[in-house]
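The methods section describes the discrete structure representation at length, but only in general terms. What matters is that the chain and its backbone geometry are given together, residue for residue. Nothing conveys this as quickly as seeing an actual entry. For illustration, here is how one protein appears when written out as sequence plus structure tokens:
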Amino acid sequence: MEGNKVKKVISSVATVVVVVAVVVGLKFYNKHKTSGEVLAQAESVVQTVPGYEQDPAYHDALFEKAHDEAFSEAYSMGGRRTRARFDSERYLEVLLSTMRDMARADGRQEVAASIESRRVLLELPVEE
């Protein structure tokens, strides 16, 4: 009798662990999928930055480096009773701010100014 109870408890615990693992895995899968979709859409915004055509490799490198930070700031996986959320305005704000700051750190003031002009055009909050 005792052995059957222990087996049932172990079986119940194992089931709960599997269900939790699946739910968590799906949340991370959805986050990864959303990140890829946002990356593809944001690329078109970056390509409209004045001066992009003169040095697309540099702009793309800034974009790739800034994307993860911006996405992490803008994406919330939600909780047990709330859905995942993505704040596109916050994403663009952090993306362009980070790109601008990296360009400044590289001594590329003209690129930083063009990225800032895109931020203004998009009417994103100005932060220094």
Summary: The longest strand covers residues 75-76. The chain has four helices and two strands. Confidence is low (pLDDT under 50) at residues 11-29. Helices lie at 2-46, 56-74, 88-105, 109-121.
